[in-house]
Amino acid sequence: MRRTATILLIPLLLYFAQAVSAQRTDATRLPDQLSDQEFWSLVNDLSEPSGPYAADNWISNESSIQNVIPQLKQLAKPGRVYLGVGPEQNFTYMWALQSKMGFIIDIRRQNMIEILMLKALFETSPDRADYVANLFSRRRPAGLDANTSAQALMTAFASAPSEGLAKNVEAVKNTLSKHGYTLSAADLARIAFVQDIFNRGGMSLTAEFESPSAATAGGAIPVTFTQLMTATDKNGQPWSFLSSEAAYQYVKEMHRKNLIVPLVGDFAGPATIRKVGDYVRQRNSNVGAFYVSNVEYYLNGPTMKAFQANLASLPIDASSMLIRWSPRSTAQNLPWSTPTMGVATMLQPAAEFVDLIKAGGAPATWADVLRGTKDPEYYAASAQDPSLRRVSGRVTGITGLKPGETLVVELVEGLRPRGVILSADVAADGSFDVRNVSSRTYQAILRRTCKNCSKSTVAAAPVNVVVGDKDVADVRLTFIAQ
């Protein structure tokens, strides 16, 4: 009997050892799903106190957010952690990027509880049409199915009568209660108020609809919910989270698994961004994209530096991207702006910006941020082709550059005229990275130039670079001051 008990005990011990091992492994990677308790602990533990903001933003007012999605998908890796600010536009980006997990950080507690409201509506709405019906408390029109286009969906609901507001308010309250979230009476009252706003605004709802402080924030931007959901990128491809049933179900599943975590946090605050970074780092992942919108517009001096320090603390790699947005009032600061461009959405590799921060060359104002950006097509064109090579290195001894001057490394096939093959800007810390280089022999030439300059001067002795079947790193160029 003792031997039998011992034999039975061994499989049990192995089972428990495997279970403990699995739990330890799970703690070192991003979760596939969070329990309600884990989700709510993150909401509370990672958040900061709510701060002031000039106006209500029920929905996004950024009509251009989809313009950069083709380039974003080319540059950013799927399956990473997404960070963002504001309401529903984050769902569109998470769907397009196929994010594994998302944190939505906003200084307004109202934004956090609105995301919880939307979470409850996703969970209780089997498809897109039910979601829209429940969000706006409208009667669902007949004939809508999984193949209905976003435009047809919005058109159908535009004339749908109001119906079921009280029922929907109660359903959201009950859903959040079943999760065990400890929301205050004021929180629940505010959620009910937001539901009433959506009901009164209907499909023509704008970001600042009936917001008493809209004028203080610079006036309402008349972009409607319908326009946001039916928008496309510049190629005509729709990406909104209501553009297809597949898009809706992807976001719905993330909500079901508690993988979209809304937080109250100040971008220049001491805790939230850094805690999110720690959480992601401890699970051996990186931030895939950080949608910062135009938050930097509201930062200056110490708050700008605090935000930049927070950003530099995040776990990122070469594929991590920043997404910014500029209204018409500041878009003229973009070097690649055109008179007809209006609002603009921008991309920048997070590592490029963090290099500036660490080298002490980060922009001090929103205008400086915009002036330092490039056309998203520039970054997409420089994305690494896996069949080609990368040549990287550093320029040392950089001194005496005048304001507006820059350094560029060119790979030249011999010193004959017009022999430039590829080039890359030199970062503030002297590093450079030339991508998509074919296998052959080059000379690396450093040139000193400036924006809109018609001439440049050689600023270092050329260095031979032989590119074979592997990337070439640690190319060294020594700057010669003139």
Write the layout of secondary structure elements.
Layout: H1 2-26, H2 36-45, H3 69-75, E1 81-84, H4 89-97, E2 101-106, H5 109-124, H6 128-136, H7 150-158, H8 165-179, H9 185-201, H10 225-230, H11 245-256, E3 260-264, H12 272-282, E4 287-293, H13 302-312, E5 321-326, H14 328-331, E6 344-349, H15 350-358, H16 366-371, H17 376-381, E7 389-396, E8 405-412, E9 420-425, E10 431-437, E11 441-450, E12 457-458, E13 463-466, E14 472-478
Parallel strand pairs: 1-2, 1-4, 2-3, 4-5, 7-14
Antiparallel strand pairs: 5-6, 7-10, 8-9, 8-11, 11-12, 11-13
Helix pairs in contact: 4-11, 5-8, 5-9, 5-11, 8-9, 13-15
Question: How would you summarize this macromolecular structure in one to three sentences?
Answer:
The protein has 17 helices and 14 strands. It is an alpha/beta fold.
Describe the structure.
- With 482 residues, the chain is of the alpha/beta class.
- It folds into two domains: 36-379, no CATH class; 385-478, Carboxypeptidase-like, regulatory domain (Immunoglobulin-like, Sandwich), CATH 2.60.40.1120.
- Helix content is 38%, strand content 18%.
- The protein is built from 17 helices and 14 strands.
- The protein has helices at residues 2-26, 36-45, 69-75, 89-97, 109-124, 128-136, 150-158, 165-179, 185-201, 225-230, 245-256, 272-282, 302-312, 328-331, 350-358, 366-371, 376-381, and strands at residues 81-84, 101-106, 260-264, 287-293, 321-326, 344-349, 389-396, 405-412, 420-425, 431-437, 441-450, 457-458, 463-466, 472-478.
- The chain has a six-stranded mixed beta sheet, sandwiched between helices. Strands 8, 9, 11, 12 and 13 form a five-stranded antiparallel beta sheet that branches.
- The longest helix has 25 residues, at 2-26.
- The radius of gyration is 26 Å and the shape is elongated.
- Mean pLDDT is 90; it is low at 1-8 and 19-25.
